[in-house]
Amino acid sequence: AMALCLKQVFNKDKTFRPRKKFEPGTQRFELYKKAQASLKSGLDLKAVVQLPPGESINDWIAVHVVDFFNRINLIYGTMSEYCTERSCPIMSGGLKYEYRWQDDSKYKKPTKLSAPQYMCMLMDWIEMLINNEDIFPTRIGVPFPKQFQQVCTKILTRLFRVFVHVYIHHFDSIINMGAEAHVNTCYKHFYYFIREFSLIDHRELEPLVRMSQGWGG
């Protein structure tokens, strides 16, 4: 599975994973369109992330988790050729932070992985969760599970680590590709969203704290 996984990472068509789509006609699709429209209108990102009146918070969080997964996937996909077993033998954010992988199946204990392996495991794990109807129900009237926000916190905390790794280890590649403004906007949007709903423990944000100091919030 690992070899197949790595082949997917390094194929040149830039999408790291198939994107998860919102089904047209569903409430989520409408919410997604609403969120995208306000994003494109150039509104202040702090305003963009606020829960629209009358909408359910879990639906709003679900839409954003899936959208951030798609977008961060794409960002990592564009840099994946620079993130190799050789360049990044450890999944880290500089010398101070090292992230180990743990899941409920293959890796029961936190395990050292290279950055590309970690990314691969992470994207597969998130994809499995967001496609699981018991966790991310898509049918109208099916309630979210009690632990929904906890699951989202775990997903978003791990997605944040992708930003940490990409910013600290691959920033020169981002600049060379002319992707700096795009990555920064995505990170800012993500940051305001998790702050608005207190979805990530502030200690996890430490590696990029200098970047966001000037933004308030």
The main pleated sheet reads as: 2 strands, antiparallel
Question: Which strand order do you get reading across the main beta sheet?
Answer: 1-2
What is the CATH class designation? Mainly Alpha
Q: How much is the average pLDDT?
A: 85
The CATH topology name reads Butyryl-CoA Dehydrogenase, subunit A, domain 3
Overall, the morphology is globular
- Count of DSSP helices? 8
Helix content: 40-55%
Q: Could you state the oligomeric state of the chains shown? A: single chain
CATH H-level name... which superfamily?
A: MOB kinase activator
Overall CATH architecture: Up-down Bundle
Helix/strand class: mainly alpha
Instruction: Estimate what percentage of residues fall within beta strands.
Output: under 5%
Order of helices and strands: HHHHEEHHHH
Return Rg in Å: 17 Å
Number of domains: 1
Distance between termini? 42 Å
Low-confidence segments, given as residue ranges, are 1-16
Number of strands: 2
What does this structure look like?
By secondary structure, this protein is mostly helical. It has one domain (55-212): Butyryl-CoA Dehydrogenase, subunit A, domain 3 (Up-down Bundle), CATH 1.20.140. Helix content is 53%, strand content 2%. It contains eight helices and two strands. It has helices spanning 2-10, 27-40, 45-48, 57-79, 115-130, 148-176, 180-196, 209-212, and strands spanning 92-93, 97-98. Strands 1-2 form a two-stranded antiparallel ribbon. A hairpin with a 3-residue loop joins β1 (92-93) and β2 (97-98). It starts with a helix and ends in a 5-residue tail after the last helix.
